[in-house]
Design brief:
This protein has 232 residues and is α/β, with parallel strands linked by helices. It has 10 helices and 9 strands. The protein has 2 domains: 156 residues, SPOUT methyltransferase, trefoil knot domain (Alpha/beta knot, 3-Layer(aba) Sandwich); 60 residues, Trp Operon Repressor, Chain A, CATH 1.10.1270. Helix content is 39%, strand content 18%. Strand 8 and strand 9 form a beta hairpin. The longest helix is centred in the last third of the chain and has 19 residues. The two termini are 35 Å apart. 24% of the residues are buried.
Length: 232
């Protein structure tokens, strides 16, 4: 998988790719991450990427031309034959909300190009000329699209075969089958008077599985009734 990120702050991604399963994905060459500085695609000698909004208002709006040229450059460079395997994603609060199903879809792509906005927003013509999907990571506002891009990349990479050592652990995580994950415990068997449930220590794997299924339903119903209703 080839992952491209267009941003005015490329340095934010340099450390991000050097830890944990993220590093594993790139070290094993399961995925490749290309970071592009949006300012490299401006036609202005000052490398300007934003301007005042038409109609007035506060703040600055990111211009269409640098994004358009960046996407055009990346697509020509990557030369993905099957266009359905390549998607351009704009990170924006007004986009479709991210969930595990979308991460699974993204993990099946050959190339995904993330566009990170800043300031008061992005010229609408970026979406009209260059974007396949708009994605939001939640109903709140951040200063830019870089953190959402990192979150999505993290979620995608751990789904790729060979990145997480135990593929079974991925299958039983939260949001699989619309349920939250069951409670987990490790040593010591007792801490501050709180004991590990006896059933987990007994070694009866059939009963352990039954307990975990029951707990997953209980936790989901208590904490995320919206998910529980979908799973029922």
């Amino acid at each position: 998988m080839i992952i491209d990120v267009v941003t005015i702050f490329p340095d934010l991604f340099f450390e991000f790719k050097n830890y944990g399963v993220i590093k594993e994905a790139f070290t094993k060459e399961i995925a490749r991450l290309n970071i592009h500085n949006l300012r490299d695609f401006t036609k202005d000698k000052h490398r300007k990427v934003d301007d005042r909004p038409y109609g007035g208002g506060f703040g600055m709006v990111m211009m269409v031309q640098p994004f358009y040229d960046a996407v055009k450059f990346i697509k020509e460079k990557n030369n993905i034959e099957k266009k359905d395997n390549q998607k351009v994603v704009l990170l924006t609060p007004r986009g479709e909300k991210l969930n595990q199903d979308k991460l699974k879809y993204f993990s099946g792509l050959e190339n995904i190009i993330f566009l990170c906005g800043r300031y008061e927003g992005v010229d609408e013509r970026v979406s009209e000329t260059s974007v396949d999907m708009e994605i939001s990571i939640g109903d709140y506002i951040l200063t830019g699209g870089e953190l959402p891009a990192m979150i999505i990349i993290d979620g995608i990479l751990r789904l790729l075969p060979g990145v997480v050592h135990s593929e079974e652990s991925v299958k039983i995580e939260s949001f699989e089958n619309e349920l939250l994950e069951f409670p987990q415990y490790t040593r010591p068997p007792e801490f501050m008077g709180i004991k590990v449930p006896e059933i987990l220590i007994g070694g009866n794997h059939r009963e352990i599985k039954k307990w975990r299924d029951e707990q997953a339903h209980y936790v989901t119903k208590k904490r995320r009734p919206d998910l529980f209703d979908k799973s029922s």
